[in-house]
Amino acid sequence: MSRPGLVLLAGALLAGALGGAGAADPDAARRTDSDAVRRLVEPCGGCHGPDGNATVPGMPSLAGMPAYYTHWQLIMFRDGRRPSPVMAPFAAALRDDDLAAVAAFYEAQVPRPRPAPVDPRRAALGRPLADAHRCTACHRPDLMGQHQVPRLAGQDLQYLLERLRGYRARTTSDLDGMMTMIAQALSDEDIQNLAHFLASVPPRPRAEVAPATP
Fold first, then answer.
1. Reported pTM
2. Which residues of the chain are in CATH 1.10.760.10 domains?
3. Which one of 126, 150, 165, 195 is at 20 to 30 Å from 39 when CA atoms are compared?
């Protein structure tokens, strides 16, 4: 099966799992600016930024992240499938509809490029790597992510490096094993160059991103 096909299959399987966990909450998007939701996300601001644009090196920005992806990650933190001494207690304290509302809040925020310096030379070397490994097949041509696939465009450089190294070392959680498989072929230089390229791509507001392929 092709990689896009695997994405759709995984998305279908996740839809069932999330459906039972309140992911299909039709009111979540309308509540993204409510006082209640802002109280829910307030503890997240120290690491991820008040509006999801993190400035702490190594911390991912959540602004503009597909709600489906953020919601699923929160469920995995809560259920222990993605171990984290920081995120697990936070996720465990939230109800299912709260998780959906938090994810919708961050999806609605406007993402900004991270302040970490990007090496233009490495970014230029990373572009053909992204093409060769077909990053855009799952993460979209604009690298803004879709469904359970995260946004990479303009993401924190240190975070991207850590995730790619973790996939290669098989220590990072991987929904379908695709990233772990791809990372095995990456050298240290490849990881550096690919991360610099991904971090260099300007992120876009989710409202300007074309709907994901159903």
1. 0.83
2. 3-108, 120-202
3. 150
Asked whether the beta carbons of 147 and 187 are under 8 A apart, the reply is: no
**Residues 92 and 78 sit within 8 Å (Cβ to Cβ):** yes
- Please, what are the averages of pLDDT over each run of 10 residues along the chain (214 residues)? 44 43 46 82 95 95 97 94 92 94 97 91 98 96 96 97 97 88 97 98 92 65
Would you put residue 147 in left (φ > 0), alpha (ψ -120 to 50) or beta?
Answer: left
The CATH homologous superfamily of the domain defined by 120-202: Cytochrome c-like domain (1.10.760.10)
Q: Tokens in use for 110?
A: 């406007």
Contact 138, 36 (CB under 8 A): no
- Are 72 and 164 within 8 A, CB to CB? no
- Token code pair at residue 157: 């450089």
Please report the sign of the dihedral spanned by the C-alpha atoms of residue 29, residue 101, residue 159, residue 132: negative
Instruction: Write down the CATH number for the domain with range 3-108.
Output: 1.10.760.10
> Residue 25: how many CB atoms within 10 A of its CB?
21
Position 159: which residue type?
Answer: Y
